[in-house]
Specification:
Radius of gyration: 20 Å
Number of strands: 0
Shape: flat
Mean pLDDT: 88
Strand content: under 5%
Largest sheet: none
Distance between the termini: 24 Å
Order of helices and strands: HHHH
Length: about 70
């Protein structure tokens, strides 16, 4: 593996061409990106009891132990 520097400005535009999935499978999105983002944010606002515990020092410590590679 050789690590290289990020290309400057490489993430200025992200675009998806969904024509293949539409043409081959007949799939089209049921909601717009804007509606999907709105619904996602609303879900997190309505379900704070699900994600708030992830901010606790206990969970953060657990996360560090599990994902830092420490034994």
């Amino acid at each position: 593996i050789t690590f290289v520097k990020d290309r400057p400005g490489h993430d200025r535009r992200y675009a998806i061409d969904a024509s293949k999935i539409r043409d081959e499978l007949g799939w089209t999105p049921q909601v717009t990106v804007e509606e999907g983002l709105r619904k996602t944010v609303q879900w997190y606002l309505d379900n704070q009891d699900w994600w708030q515990p992830l901010l606790s020092p206990e969970y953060q410590s657990f996360y560090q132990k599990v994902y830092s590679g420490a034994a």
